[in-house]
Specification:
Layout lengths: L9 E5 L2 H4 L12 H5 L18 H15 L3 E5 L2 H4 L8 H16 L3 E7 L5 H4 L8 H17 L5 E6 L1 H10 L10 H25 L4 E7 L3 E3 L5 H24 L4 H10 L1 H10 L4 H5 L5 E5 L4 E4 L29 E2 L15 H19 L2 E6 L8 E4 L2 E4 L2 H19 L4 E7 L18 E3 L6 E3 L1 H12 L3
Parallel strand pairs: 1-2, 1-13, 2-3, 3-4, 4-5, 5-7, 6-8, 7-10, 10-13
Antiparallel strand pairs: 8-9, 11-12, 14-15
Helix pairs in contact: 3-5, 5-7, 7-9, 8-9, 9-12, 11-12, 14-15, 15-16
Enzyme class: hydrolase
EC number: 3.2.1.21
Pfam families: Glyco_hydro_1 (PF00232)
Length: about 475
């Protein structure tokens, strides 16, 4: 039995500038926060950095040809702020020219360019002035967004402001796992607000320039489940994770308010941090943040199985084993414990839970997107496994059966949601290529295309071949 996808459903793959481009200091590009952070001893596994990565900056034409070979209808990529406006300053024509050439190549290949303005690579010079804790960064981001629209507004119709602001605020400024590697509750809160304000200001400006643009944001989400649905402590753990991960961004975007229960939870553990956060919210900010968006991207990798008491069998840790001091990215984290539930796991120890994706899409659609007239796209979903490359008849092959099954299961979960009435119009696998995986360095491979980092040879894995087959058939 085959299951067809809706006629308007788009199949794509996603990447991010710092993770694939390389050419870190070529043609006028200057340091981003990830160039600086990756050079901090112990911050990244193996001391890896993105100086070369997949060398996409020089190989983009061949990479677009590979996308054509797979049958991709759309390609989600990010532009590098440090390449386009180095140090957050004047426009760098060479950096802009790269993205013009990339977009022209995609359009010539009949691949829809899906542009994300921020995938975590802020200019380091701006971080030295406070980064996202500094309200002035919102204005600098608006300048950068305007530069990209000046260059590409005639050719790019879909604009995503931010990718996963939870990561670029709480994981980065509170948890310390991502650049700039700080461990401050106050900084995480301030960063989250200024990121959302930058989103809102950019949507307003781009809509003023061209009302026909498709404008939106991409959020990463979890599905939080109680280990014991009858246990009050477990249910409270679920409420707090859902509130700090999902609702902290959904509520201001769709409802014009931060979740009051979570604000009070955080106040109970750090009243000064909340005071700084509340003082940073100026009159009109939430109105700016909550204006209409056309599209929300949903990123989903796994859910959470939670208890309010420490379990006998704690869940396997799924964070990079780096040497730097980090802390929980959640400001309110006490009495929240992940519990083992026996699901399969990826090479990062992330659970494989496709049915959670169906429930997530239904929840975001019913409670937020549908009432607002916003449509959904799956903008990231993927898995790292310990791939083994073999040479067969002079061709490099990767028989990644687990990733192939992961892809099929999650596409099935998207179909389940669509058949239940969710307006979800596309799926982007993460990632098109093996790449620099942030604090994991090059230790984990997510791609449907293998990259040999020594030779830069690209090889389509079995999962990529299966994805191409599904795209061609438009069915599971």
């Amino acid at each position: 039995m085959t299951r067809p996808f809706p006629e308007n459903f788009l199949f794509g793959a996603a990447t991010a500038a710092y993770q694939i481009e390389g050419a870190a200091f070529e043609d006028g590009r200057t340091a981003s926060i990830w160039d600086a952070f990756s050079r901090v001893p112990g911050a990244v596994i193996g001391g890896d950095n993105g100086d070369i990565a997949c060398d996409h900056y020089h190989r983009y034409a061949d990479d677009v040809a590979l996308m054509t070979r797979l049958g991709l209808q759309t390609y989600r990529f990010s532009t590098s702020w440090s390449r386009v406006r180095p140090d957050g300053g004047a426009v760098n024509p060479a950096g802009v020219d790269f993205y013009e050439r990339l977009v022209d190549s995609l359009l010539e290949a009949d691949i829809l360019p899906w542009l994300t303005l921020y995938h975590w690579d802020m200019p380091q010079a701006l971080q030295e002035k406070g980064g996202w804790t500094n309200r002035d960064t919102v204005d600098r981001f608006l300048e950068y967004a305007g530069t990209m629209h000046d260059a590409l507004g005639d050719r790019v119709n879909v604009w995503t402001t931010l990718n996963e602001p939870w990561c670029s605020s709480f994981l980065s400024y509170t948890g310390g796992e991502h650049a700039p590697g700080h461990t401050s509750v106050a900084e995480g809160l301030l960063a989250s607000h200024h990121l959302l304000l930058a989103h809102g200001e950019t949507v307003r400006e781009l809509r003023r320039r061209d009302s026909s643009l498709d404008l939106g944001i991409t959020l990463n989400h979890t599905v939080a489940d109680a280990a014991d649905p009858q246990n009050a402590g477990d249910l409270d753990a679920v409420r707090r994770i859902d509130g700090q991960f999902n609702r902290w961004f959904l509520d201001p975007i769709y409802r014009g308010a931060y979740p009051a229960d979570i604000v009070e939870d955080i106040r109970a553990v750090d009243a000064d941090a909340v005071a700084q956060f509340e003082a940073a919210i100026h009159e009109g900010d939430l109105e700016t943040i909550s204006q209409h968006i056309d599209t929300q991207g949903v990123n989903y990798y796994h859910g959470d199985f939670l208890s309010g008491t420490a379990p006998v069998e704690a869940a396997v840790e799924s964070v990079p084993d780096t040497e730097r001091k980090v802390r929980s990215p959640y400001p309110s984290f006490e009495n929240i414990h992940n519990v083992e539930r026996g699901l399969p796991r990826t090479a990062q120890n992330w659970e494989v839970q496709p049915e959670g994706l169906t429930r997530l899409l239904q929840r975001v659609w019913t409670e937020y997107a549908e009432p607002a007239g916003t449509v959904l796209y799956m903008t990231e979903n993927g898995a790292a496994y310990d791939d083994v490359a073999v040479v067969e008849e002079s061709e490099t092959r990767v028989h990644d059966a687990e990733r192939t099954e992961f892809l099929r299961l999650h596409l099935g979960a998207v179909l389940d949601a669509a058949e239940a009435g969710v307006d979800v119009r596309g799926y982007f696998y993460w990632s098109m290529f093996d790449n620099y995986e942030w604090a994991w360095g090059y230790d984990k491979r997510f791609g449907i295309v293998r990259v040999d980092y020594d030779t830069q040879e690209r090889s389509v894995k079995d999962s990529g071949r299966e994805y191409a087959r599904i795209i061609a058939a438009r069915s599971l």
